Amino acid sequence: MTPVTGEFARCSLCPRACGARRAEGQLGYCRTGTGFAVGSICLHRGEEPVLGGERGLCNVFFTRCNLQCIYCQNHQISRNRGPTVEHELTLAQAAACIGRALDAGARHVGFVSPSHCIPQMRALIAALGGRQPRPVFVMNTNAYDRADTLAALEAEVDVYLPDLKYMDADLAAQLSDAPDYPAVAAEALREMYRQKGSRLAVDADGQATSGLIIRHLVLPGHVENSLACLRWIADHLSADVHLSLMAQYRPTPAAAGHPHLGRCLRPDEYEAVLRELEALGFWRGWTQALESRESYHPDFAQSHPFEW
What we know:
By secondary structure, the chain is α/β, with parallel strands linked by helices. Helices cover 27% and strands 18% of the residues. The radius of gyration is 18 Å and the shape is globular.
């Protein structure tokens, strides 16, 4: 089912602007069509306690991706080549799955890796926006997004949950096939910050209703990149933004033999990043224990990827 055919004519939804005629069946960089291809729609208790809490949030995991990070924990659904765990749904079926999670008590709907599926995300927001109470819509993105695309989402997305992966172009090229990632992500984050600022609005239960939370995953062997990411946020946005500094990295099969990424994060590496976090004056957000890598290890071949 095609939500908005015109947007797929010559695809420029994401910064790659590969020009694929997706409405005619041509597949571009992300190898994604015009339908609702998902790895899972499930209740999930994520990393940030303000998103879902004990009830969990309903995450829609789109398949494939406009980045190809060799260490991606969702590699079963995010790779653009080879076998992928994928379910083709209609708009009605996807909305019904989300609706059941909302009926069970979830208040947030998270769209995970939606950068190449913006029309599908918008169609689902439109289908669900009339519910009472209105769900809180969360865009959980890698930040490899066009700023003008994000500007068009201002009235629809309540909470932006972007990664800031790299401030090192060579590293972005090596690990994610995107040498322009630092420049692109910087513009994307500036636009998200323009819309939401540093304030994270919460309801009476302490659950986020509007705002910006920036995630950063510390990679083993690349502490300097993490320091550069924190410094960029402090210098170009604000040390008042909410950060989610993650230590949950664990090697995937694709990264098993990598000289740096073939191991887990060391305590001294994470502690160096935590010291810089404090030195820069960040005071809002969350950090993780190194043991968290055992808690966020999905298997999308199972009926529930996080509870198998």
